[in-house]
Amino acid sequence: MSEKCQNTVGCRGYSQCMLSRTATAALPAYLRRTDSPIGRIEVTSDGEAVTSLSIACAGQLPLDGQPEHSTAVLDRAVAQLTEYFAGTRTHFDLPVATAGTEFQKAVWAQLANLQFGEVISYGELGHATGRATAGRAVGGAVGANPVPIIVPCHRVLASDKRITGYSGGDGVPTKVWLLDHEGIEHRS
pLDDT tens across 44-82, in order? Predict the structure, then answer.
């Protein structure tokens, strides 16, 4: 990943995470890319569910060198993402399979319950997952979300509605676009 990408992303772990995921993980069985107002998007699947979604960072996607090989669930995902960006879809109806710790999965489950335009603070997310004082762990789990947008980690803000970072795409500008698209009040 480029030096520019590493420096522009809101979460330092993003570049390392994306590099290590592509370097050490097996290549996905299915892969599809699409254009969007926030840059190119890459969605992967195991054939049954969406397993990851990546937003281009400085124009690059983690699996840019790999050929596309779609499946029905990826075709549905791209169609639903297109509708979301067009403003005609407010809820995703897709099977998602995520790999992570039990705590990460608990955080992602809470995020999946957020409705279009609804926000939650890191503290509220910590309370909801039984870790009221684990702000750093909550932030880490939010940042590790493998399927942003579909599991809406962009809807997490500080308690004063401040944006504290974003690990997808080009970082905070990507999150600002998503929040503005959903009409969510925020502070930069």
Answer: 999 999 999 999 999 999 999 999 999 999 999 999 999
Number of Cβ atoms within 10 Å of the Cβ of 25: 12
Residue boundaries of the structural domains of the chain: 3-86, 102-181
User: Hey, what are 107's tokens?
Assistant: 């955080």
Q: Which of 19, 24, 104, 94 is nearest to 54 (CA)?
A: 19
What's the CATH number for 102-181?
1.10.10.10
Say whether 55 sits in a helix, a strand or coil: strand
Longest CA–CA span in the chain (Å) reads: 44
Q: Is the Cβ–Cβ distance between 92 and 112 less than 8 Å?
A: no
Structure tokens, 54: 């990546």
Q: Closest by alpha carbon to 149, among 100, 99, 78?
A: 78
Q: Which CATH class is domain 3-86?
A: alpha beta
Residue 3's closest CA among 63, 66, 60? 60
Tell whether pTM > 0.90. no
E strands within the chain?
A: 30-34, 41-45, 50-55, 120-121, 156-157
**Residues annotated as part of the active site:** 153
Beta strands in 50-95 (DSSP E): 50-55
